From TrEMBL:
PROSITE patterns, A to Z: RIESKE (PS51296)
The protein, known as: Vanillate O-demethylase monooxygenase subunit
UniProt keyword terms in alphabetical order: 2Fe-2S, Iron, Iron-sulfur, Metal-binding, Methyltransferase, Monooxygenase, Oxidoreductase, Transferase
Source organism phylogeny: Bacteria, Pseudomonadati, Pseudomonadota, Alphaproteobacteria, Rhodobacterales
Pfam family, one: VanA_C
Organism, as annotated: Salipiger profundus
Superkingdom of source: Bacteria
InterPro entries: Cholesterol_7-desaturase, Rieske_2Fe-2S, Rieske_2Fe-2S_sf, VanA_C_cat
Domain (Rieske): residue spans on this chain: 9-110
EC assignment: 1.14.13.82
Record-level Gene Ontology MF annotations: 2 iron, 2 sulfur cluster binding; metal ion binding; methyltransferase activity; vanillate monooxygenase activity
GO biological process: methylation
Length: 356
């Protein structure tokens, strides 16, 4: 049974990944062909001709239409067939699915579910994207041989950084610091502060801290596939309050997870920072550190996935730090159940009288 929630916005690509050419992307197990139309906007169509099933990405563009490379059936950006060579009638069944697209902040979002439920206003956003006090930088597209649920759980789990990232994003000082979890909002939030401790490798290299610092990790997981990690450091003697984190070196690491198949996820990551705004090399230095840390995650997550695919003799255990991931799995299951059933009781028959 699939684990994919379809009625949601997913990142299909960075804007820089899509140009005039027909390019195939696989999202939630479906193949999609995307390209830029003559007006610069992005079109996204089912990448399979309904005639002999050749991928349309193997055809060619004719203006803002796509011609199948096998027998020339041609489709416009709404998915409608506008030409069948050798005949004048256009069968109603000769169409491909078109997917809603929203492009903003250099990110292309796609809706893979019911198009009538695709509300552009619900696409993820944050004010720092357009605030001149912050620098915005796109990173890479990290391919992981892992189910997206495991990847997402890793991104609402501050406890793992002490052990998986001891030289980059964590160190031993945080091993026994309690993690706080809040699950009653739109996002699941897990956080903790490590007070009066040695700075982690990331902020030794980037923040220039030499003495002890107060540092924080706030993990926000937006169902189904967007994670924001707010982390930073400030000198201990400044006694920073939680609401004053902008006074320190503060970074948002964003992760947009795109499920490709049940065992393949693309994590497109970027960062937003309030420091070194005028340093053209800062972003690349940070990318180098992020790549090292995310490669450490990749090794762990792919090993976990490999074991999940093997027969298990007993059930895995859960411990105190798993509160966030458990709530996340519950929310995903609730969304999946909504998509598996159709509610026909919205307008109850007068034969039934409800008292609740």
């Amino acid at each position: 049974m699939t684990t994919f929630v379809r009625n949601a916005w997913y990142v299909a690509a960075w804007s820089t990944e899509i140009d005039d050419a027909l390019r195939r992307f696989t999202i939630l197990g479906d193949n999609v062909v995307m390209f830029r139309k003559s007006d610069g906007s992005v079109a996204a169509l089912e990448d399979r001709c309904p005639h002999r099933l050749l991928p349309l990405s193997k055809g060619k563009r004719i203006g803002d239409t796509v011609q199948c490379g096998y027998h020339g059936l041609t489709f416009d950006c709404s998915g409608a067939c506008v030409r069948v060579p050798g005949q004048t009638n256009l069968p109603k069944s000769a169409y491909v699915q078109a997917f809603p697209i929203v492009e903003k902040h250099g990110i292309v979002w796609i809706w893979m579910g019911d198009p009538e439920k695709a509300d552009p206003e619900t696409v993820f956003d944050m004010p720092e994207f357009t605030d001149p006090a912050w620098a915005v930088h796109h990173g890479d597209a990290l391919h992981l041989k892992s189910n997206y649920l495991n990847v997402a759980e890793n991104l609402v789990d501050p406890a793992h950084v002490s052990f998986v990232h001891p030289t980059t994003l964590g160190n031993a000082a945080s091993e026994n610091v309690p993690v706080h979890v809040k699950t009653d909002g739109e996002a699941i939030v897990a956080w903790r502060w490590i007070r009066d401790a040695e700075p982690i490798g990331f902020f030794k290299a980037f923040g220039g801290f030499t003495g002890n610092v107060d540092r924080w990790h706030y993990y926000y997981l937006h169902t189904p596939c967007t994670a924001v990690i707010d982390f930073g450091s400030i000198e201990t003697e400044r006694k920073c309050a939680e609401e004053d984190r902008n006074q320190g070196v503060r970074i948002f690491a964003l992760h947009f997870m795109t499920p490709v198949t049940e065992t393949h996820t693309i994590d497109r990551w970027m960062h937003v920072r309030n420091a070194a705004l005028d340093d053209p090399e800062a972003a690349e230095r940070m990318d180098t550190m992020f790549r090292k840390a995310f490669d450490e995650d990749k090794e762990i997550l792919e090993a976990v996935q490999a074991e999940e695919l093997r027969p298990q003799k007993r059930r895995p255990i859960r411990i105190a730090i798993d509160k966030g991931p458990l709530v996340y799995r519950k929310r995903i299951n609730e969304l999946l159940e909504l998509e598996r059933t159709e509610d026909l009781a919205a307008d109850p028959s007068p034969a039934f009288v409800y008292h609740d």
